[in-house]
């Protein structure tokens, strides 16, 4: 009887393991990549927001907000987490020796 009860739970355990490796784990990996991309934003990067607006980062204000220049003289405040991708990454400023 005890062997039969354990055998009934094996399919449930397998389904959970398959769901973890096919859905949960890749989503967590994608979330970590997005968080590191957003944390690495700096002035001069060209970005795309989740709304589809393309602009250049003009100022990194604080932990949660940046200013993006959409056109000449048009600057908007954007929440960092709404940046979907970085199109062009600027090179860091090299220090003079």
UniProtKB/TrEMBL annotation:
InterPro entries: Preprotein_translocase_YajC. The chain crosses the membrane at residues 6-24. GO terms for cellular component: plasma membrane. It is a single-pass membrane protein. Keywords: Cell membrane, Membrane, Protein transport, Translocation, Transmembrane, Transmembrane helix, Transport. One of its GO terms (biological process) is protein transport. It comes from the Bacteria. It is found in: Cell membrane. The SecYEG-SecDF-YajC-YidC holo-translocon (HTL) protein secretase/insertase is a supercomplex required for protein secretion, insertion of proteins into membranes, and assembly of membrane protein complexes. While the SecYEG complex is essential for assembly of a number of proteins and complexes, the SecDF-YajC-YidC subcomplex facilitates these functions. Part of the SecDF-YidC-YajC translocase complex. The SecDF-YidC-YajC translocase forms a supercomplex with SecYEG, called the holo-translocon (HTL). Belongs to the YajC family. PANTHER family: SEC TRANSLOCON ACCESSORY COMPLEX SUBUNIT YAJC. This is Sec translocon accessory complex subunit YajC.
């Amino acid at each position: 009887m005890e062997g039969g009860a354990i055998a009934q739970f094996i399919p449930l355990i397998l389904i959970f393991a398959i769901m973890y490796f096919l859905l949960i784990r890749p989503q967590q990996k994608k979330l970590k990549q997005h968080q590191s991309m957003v944390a690495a934003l700096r002035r001069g990067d060209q970005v795309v927001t989740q709304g589809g607006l393309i602009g250049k980062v003009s100022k990194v204000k604080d932990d949660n907000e940046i200013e993006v220049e959409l056109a000449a003289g048009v600057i908007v405040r954007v929440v960092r987490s709404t940046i979907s991708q970085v199109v062009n990454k600027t090179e860091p400023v090299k220090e003079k020796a």
